[in-house]
From TrEMBL:
Domain Methyltransferase type stretches: 57-150
A Pfam family matched in the record: Methyltransf_11
Keywords: Methyltransferase, Transferase, Ubiquinone
Gene Ontology BP annotations: methylation
GO MF terms, alphabetically ordered: S-adenosylmethionine-dependent methyltransferase activity
Name of the protein in question: Ubiquinone/menaquinone biosynthesis C-methylase UbiE
Native species: Herbiconiux ginsengi
Amino acid sequence: MGADAEFEELLAEGEAVPTAGWDFSWFEGRATEERPSWGYAGIAAERIADADSVLDIQTGGGEVFAGALAEAGARTGRMPSTVWATEGHTPNLALARERLELFRGEVVQVAEDAALPFAAERFDLALSRHPQSTDWAEVARVLHPGGTFLTQQVAAGSNRELYEFFLGPQPAAENTSRSLENLVAGARAAGLRVVDALHESTKVEFFDVAAVVYFLRKVLWTVPGFTVERYRDRLAAVHARIQATGSFVSHSERALIEARKP
């Protein structure tokens, strides 16, 4: 296969993969991402094991939440009596509902910037992994006194090497609302007591341009407005780099915050 034909085939392959949900198994053998050392899913399972009412905010396809619920159930032999999740992306709803049905979970569609459709002090545990945004005041409102909020956030500058390759240099202060300092400040401003706040930078490596295309289609905010046609020249440069060096390397930024309502 000629170089041009291989490039076009990889572009087509990356464009064809469905993007619903947050199952990243398609990347196996094509991309890798180191995980933060704290292990969010395991911590979530520990907190669920002690909870009676649980809310997962912006659950995606419910993959991580369902896994944490299953792990908690295996530890304790019981499930929380109340299990809810919110999700704003319509294609994810059916996936989340199917996964959470086993745990008697309900999923409601809620836009990322909308108020949570729950009464005050409804939950003793709220979770959120990689939300597009966090309304700390709303989280505080729906927690019982003494309730816990555990969240893993995509922190400021995540995958900067990747998005600057497509968009050019971005301001150093870009997206500082997601810095660990500002995330902690948001939690405290809502009246929550921060009990843990961690940050790690982890390596992301893409081994073919199809994986880059799929990632940018799936994680829409990395390169806003991404399409293959719009960025064909930059994708050709990505392909050339991978052919020359074996991979395209970037770094994700992750923050973990655990906070409690007094």
